[in-house]
Amino acid sequence: MTKNNTIDEIRNILENYKDPKSKRPLLKSGLIESLALDKNRLSFALNVLPQDIALYEPFRKNLEEALHSKFPSFNIFVALTAHRPSSLSEQPPSERQQTKQSTDKKESYDLPHLKNIIAIASGKGGVGKSMIAMNLALVLRKSGFKVGLLDLDIYGPSLPLMTGLEGPATMTPDKKIKPFLFKGLSVMSMGFLVPARSPIIWRGPMIQSGVRQLFIDVDWPELDYLLLDLPPGTGDTQLTLAQKCPLSAAVIVSTPQDLALADALKGIAMFEKLKIPIAGLIENMASYICPHCHEESHPFTRGKPQEEAERSEIPFLGSVPLSATILQAADQGNPAFLEDPQSMERNVFFKITQRLLENLDQK
User: Fold this and answer.
1) Which residue from 360, 359, 354 is spatially nearest to 136, judged by alpha carbons?
2) CA 71/CA 168 separation, integer angstroms
3) By mean pLDDT, which of 79-83, 228-232, 319-323 is the weakest?
4) Ramachandran angles phi, psi of 239, nearest 5°
5) Are residues 23 and 121 in the same domain?
6) Which of 124, 182, 234, 302 would be 270's cystine partner, CB 3.0–4.6 Å?
7) Do the Cβ atoms of 243 and 215 come closer than 8 Å?
8) What angle is formed at CA 2 by the lines to CA 174 and CA 62, rounded to 5 degrees?
9) Residue 148 maps to which CATH number?
10) Is residue 30 part of a domain?
11) Are residues 210 and 357 located together in one domain of the fold?
12) Is the pLDDT of residue 193 over 60?
């Protein structure tokens, strides 16, 4: 079946549905946007008002189930978004009150099979947070724990590149998304669910919906630790997690530069305000190791992250060098250095992970 024929089949299914609120035919209602089809990956959004999300959630699930029935081998992702109105002031007073009530309802994720959920966060992008999260997860797995890694950077998922894995994800018989396996880790990313070249253009409510589905709609096994690779900053993803996910602790990643540290401190303050324990701060790109002579130099300010950790009264977990070995491992999806007992980089991550475990035991 060609792509055009498949799209025609999809439209035939959608023509049988009406907008639950306006009762207009779904395809003429203006609800559907960002429809993308790549091989057997199908994704689109339903653009609804924020106060109508509860009304449309069962409708969204019905659409997914109907499409799965027709295309059982497809990976199908239907999300809710809210682009209109742009502010609450544009709504009538009655609708503003409904929106407030719906936002105040904090539906907590029921995740008893995930014993410890650790957020790996940074205030600024480009500090190597995803690489840190990956290597911490791998070392925890090598230490005998059952470990998962969830890439929650919706706009810029990096897990597909760092693992060398490609979607689409497969489904269980009860329509749950199967996590991928990478060197013993259970891993999942939005990058496995939407076509690789399709930009994700979402606003707040849709981010919340996407985060929820990555927890609830994924068939996570029982895990001792699930590490969350968060997007940088203090935005919708972080607030959604703090409100709805039973986070055990957060780890902050920063480089030595003043700009990165300033944003890291904002991240620390956010988690403290949200009553999430801080398990420690990790300094990345602390020094440069020459791959030829193995001499260590410090291109950035030395010692500041540790000083800031002590000033903020949070544990300092350790420093990771700017190493070609680590960078190549991340780019190639092959962290072979963790298998070499003589590797300096391996020993750095094992020491940091040991300190992290000690701090988690004290929480």
Assistant:
1) 354
2) 13
3) 79-83
4) -70, -40
5) no
6) 234
7) no
8) 30
9) 3.40.50.300
10) yes
11) yes
12) yes
Going by pLDDT thresholds of 50, 70 and 90, the confidence category of residue 200 is low
Are 257 and 263 spatial neighbours (Cβ–Cβ below 8 Å)? no
pLDDT computed for residue 363 by the predictor: 58
Between 113 and 213, the more confident residue is 113
Q: Which amino acid is it at 312?
A: S
Q: What is the pLDDT of residue 351?
A: 96
In sequence order, which residues have a C-beta less than 8 Å from that of residue 73 and are 6 or more positions away?
A: 40
Domain count, the chain: 2
By residue count, the chain amounts to 363
Residues 96 and 234 in one domain: no
- Residue finishing a domain among 54, 76, 104: 104
High-pLDDT (> 90) share of the chain, %: 29
Which DSSP category does 29 fall into? T
Residue holding tokens 């929480």? 363
* Residue 109 belongs to some domain of the structure: no
Cα–Cα nearest to 211, from 186, 239, 248: 239
Tokens of 26: 């779904």
Q: Which domain holds residue 255?
A: 114-362
Q: Give the pair of three-digit tokens for residue 351.
A: 């020491």
Neighbouring C-alpha atoms within 13 Å toward the C-beta of 274? 23
Average pLDDT of every residue of the chain: 82
Asked whether the predicted pLDDT for residue 95 surpasses 70, the reply is: no
Q: Does residue 147 contact residue 185 with C-beta atoms inside 8 Å?
A: yes
Q: Please choose, from the candidates 267, 257, 242, the residue with its C-alpha nearest in 3D space to the C-alpha of residue 109.
A: 242
Output the six-digit token pair for 288. Answer: 């440069």
Which value, in Å, is the radius of gyration of the alpha carbons in the chain? 22
pLDDT higher than 60, residue 93: no
Task: Determine the Cα–Cα distance for residues 22 and 28; give it in Å rounded to an integer.
Answer: 11
Write out the two tokens for 318: 């350790």
Q: What is the pLDDT of residue 136?
A: 97
